Amino acid sequence: MLKLENACITFHPNTVNERRALDNVNLHLKKGDFVTVIGSNGAGKSTMLNAISGTYIIDSGYVYLDGQDVTMQKSYKRAKHIGRLFQDPLKGTAPNMTIEENLALAYSRGSRRGLSRGIKKSDEQMFREQLSRLGLGLEDRLKSKVGLLSGGQRQALTLLMATIVTPKMLLLDEHTAALDPKTAKQVMDITNEIVKENNITTLMVTHNIKDALHTGNKTLVMSGGKIITVLEGEQRENMTLEKLMKLYSDAAGDSFSDKNLLD
Ligand SMILES: Nc1ncnc2c1ncn2[C@@H]1O[C@H](COP(=O)(O)OP(=O)(O)OP(=O)(O)O)[C@@H](O)[C@H]1O
Ligand SMILES: [Mg+2]
Questions:
Q1: How many angstroms separate the alpha carbon of residue 46 from the centre of ligand 2?
Q2: Ligand 1 within 6 A of 38 CB?
Q3: Among the atoms of ligand 1, which is closest to the Cα of residue 48?
Q4: How far is the CA of 33 from the centre of ligand 1 (A)?
């Protein structure tokens, strides 16, 4: 479903601020892979997601999505097939539009159907059903402005919007980091449910090591713009924080500095 081949991005090349944020990254995800990504601040995690979404066009290498070469494709074109969530709950929804209008807009993604014909009764019913599954009581607030929702409610809604038309890829960049622990868990549970049920190929960046090791089927460890280790199978299941620290310092030649490590 996704292939990165020797993907490189250098910011401010040939200046004193030159920074190789992606350094020959190779990554191959099969349909339904749910892969978590960890690494210290500045490791290149967000840059890798930006390279996949087309927010940044890579300097060299290739990006393939579902077998198609999208290396030079603009982000708005890729957005038809890629769902994305950020740390900031304010991104991804339109605050002055109602929940129903936001969902209708998301539902029209990738098709020619716009909002011009209004929202159909059958769509409204489907939105209500989907919202009730989030367990946040949003199904009774279809006509509420999204700006009135809490951060957790907005993140859950954004997740629903990103997946209401099943995307080829879902990119989650610390999407629970700004939420309180209870809400973060709720949104994580919803994420697991939606991803598994629809078999969505997903990359999830997190600073929560427990979430990283216990969510999905693989964990990438990044440092200095490279994927330094891929954990899967038994090695991943038996991974402890101590072993991970050792593995990281051996591979990166540096210690793992992560403030949220023990959350
Ligand atoms: N638009 C940009 N312009 C210049 N440098 C950038 C840009 N985006 C990222 N960088 C640099 O590239 C490197 C990788 O950044 P990136 O945001 O990918 O890290 P990250 O792993 O997501 O870190 P964090 O955990 O803090 O979110 C950093 O050194 C960063 O300063
Ligand atoms: Mg980041």
A1: 4
A2: no
A3: 18
A4: 25
CB 168 within 8 A of CB 82: yes
For ligand 2, an ion, list residues with CB under 5 A. Answer: 45-46
| Number of domains comprising the chain | 1
Which range of residues forms the domain containing residue 23? 2-262
Identify the CATH number of the domain in which residue 84 sits. Answer: 3.40.50.300
Mutate to test the pocket of ligand 1, among 12, 37, 46 (most ligand atoms within 8 A of CB): 46
Q: What are the structure tokens assigned to 57, written together? A: 């066009």
Percent of the chain with pLDDT over 70: 94
Positive or negative: CA dihedral 172, 84, 58, 42: negative
Residue 82: in which H helix or E strand, if any? strand 82-85
Q: Tell me the pTM.
A: 0.93
The span from the CA of 44 to the CA of 37, in Å, is 10
Q: Please choose, from the candidates 89, 107, 100, 91, the residue with its C-alpha nearest in 3D space to the C-alpha of residue 144.
A: 100
pLDDT band at 252 (very low <50, low <70, confident <90, very high): confident
Distances (CA, A) of 147 to 87, 107, 163, 179: 17, 20, 21, 16
